[in-house]
Amino acid sequence: MKKLANYVQGRWQEGTGEGTTLYDPVLGTPLVKVCAKGVDMAAAYDHARTQAGPALRRYTYAERAGLLAQVAQVLQASRDNYYDISLQNSGTVKNDTAVDVEGSIYTLGYYAKLGSRLVDGQVHLDGDSTSLAKDNAFASQHIEVPVRGVALLINAFNFPAWGLWEKAAPALLSGVPVVVKPATATAWLTHEMVKDVIEAGILPEGSISIVCGRPEGLLDALNGLDLVSFTGSAETAATLRQHPRIQHDGVRFNAETDSVNCALLDPEATGSDLLVREVVRELTIKSGQKCTAIRRIFVPEASYDAVAKGICEKLQGITVGDPRNESVRMGSLVSQTQKKAVTEGIELLAKHCDVLFDGRTQTSMQVDGNDHACVAPMLFGTRDPDNLALVHETEVFGPVATIMPYRDIEHAYELARRGMGSLVASVYGEDTDFLAQAAVRLAESHGRVHVINSAVAKVQTGHGNAMPQSNHGGPGRAGGGQELGGLRALAFYHRLAAVQAAPEVLARLAAQ
Ligand code: NAP
Fold this sequence. Notes:
Blueprint (H helix, E strand, L loop, with lengths): L2 E2 L1 E3 L2 E3 L6 E4 L6 E5 L6 H18 L2 H17 L1 H12 L3 H23 L7 E8 L7 E8 L4 E4 L7 H13 L3 E4 L5 H14 L7 E3 L16 E5 L2 H8 L2 H4 L4 E5 L4 E5 L7 H12 L9 E7 L3 H13 L19 H17 L1 E5 H4 L15 E4 L8 H4 L6 E7 L2 H9 L4 E7 L3 H12 L2 E7 L18 E2 L10 E2 L9 E8 L1 H9 L1
Parallel strand pairs: 1-5, 8-9, 8-11, 9-10, 11-12, 13-14, 13-18, 14-17, 16-17, 18-19
Antiparallel strand pairs: 2-3, 4-5, 6-7, 7-22, 15-16, 20-21
Helix pairs in contact: 2-4, 2-5, 3-4, 3-6, 4-5, 9-10
Bound molecules: NADP nicotinamide-adenine-dinucleotide phosphate (NAP).
């Protein structure tokens, strides 16, 4: 079976061990192997820092933006291949693959456009200078300069394409070389994209490297001026945070982790169609394997039964199964491991909540055999959300959500906050005053607040879609990280320093 080679130190290197096999989660067919045994990570990072770093930094921001645009073109040319790999390795229907593949190309294109407007130069001024002495004889000016280390990108299994490029685009635009370590289960698509970009010869040698599997020294070989951008579970983030390079040496660490996101219906709402539609979309896109998916639904007590009924009716119409089957709307989870984890999560919720839609009995699977990793949607409900911590703390990473009634709007905000920090909350209603107030109240514990009334119903970008224009990340349980958000994303790949000097030095610096 084909073993995917790692690209480090300017050459493709096969791992020396047996490797890990990647499978088709629907058919069970073995696909490819990955192995990072024997890869010298210290040499890999050194090559990226010393070869690619200076070469990337010789370009202006606008020139690097031009490179991103070319990368996007290369990926566009191989779309069909990426869709095919995703079908085999992630078990996704075409629309769900598009979220990953088209999302990655769109994000690259967006940063190419943003970067093309950046003023050339190596020094970015942050605000104005501030006087530190009488008559401004001595002053302070904050500047931001690109990091000269390497950025290690550790990604989750659910977005092998977008997960790579949403991080790599701002890093490369900043002039920072990247080493990507995709999640093992779905590493093939990431590998194929990186291979195509390297073969196209657009980026300076060493700008992008890839290791598939778990190489020794992945973190040990970093130094204190390198960066790690991590996406995955809170548990893994907690482990990585204790690594001496991060805990002791100060490697900058960004984490995007679990999130128990919510949707909230206006207490005075006369209809719930917009919320119902979005909940069903979020439950089913990528089989609910989205860090941003709606997990908790808060509705006024009087609307609880009607909203639950509306969601259940729509879930009845969702066909689940083999994504090769044209009639299937929702494909598979990415692996048997995920199926086991999600099934256990469903069993746990079923013990404590009412099962309002039971995909286990109400959905007929459009798939052969029993060895597939398909799981049908589940809607749970609890009328006592105050006393069921589980629903606020447990992220079942599949097509699973729980609906809960709230007494009044303060109660709703309190319940939303019990997620202890989430990526996104969405709010549905028509009262502008309420919507604006809810946005401010939810912003304290959510990285993004998606506010929907009928005026934006047709143009809105979706509760779960992380748009490059908007912040992606959340406080607390969501990892405390920050990605995207336009040029804000570049801050992670730059160092902030205060320069204290004579006004003529600061003026010269500003002129650079
Ligand atoms: P995971 O098990 O934490 O793995 C994430 C990544 O970390 C993988 O590349 C994994 O490699 C790697 N990893 C695990 N242990 C490691 C270690 N000791 N040293 C170095 N690397 C290590 O998470 P996952 O199962 O892939 O993803 C699902 C989770 O990610 C969900 O909880 C979801 O909420 C979260 N997620 C969050 C976001 C977000 O933006 N906030 C986005 C997507 C997913 P291997 O694959 O080789 O184990």
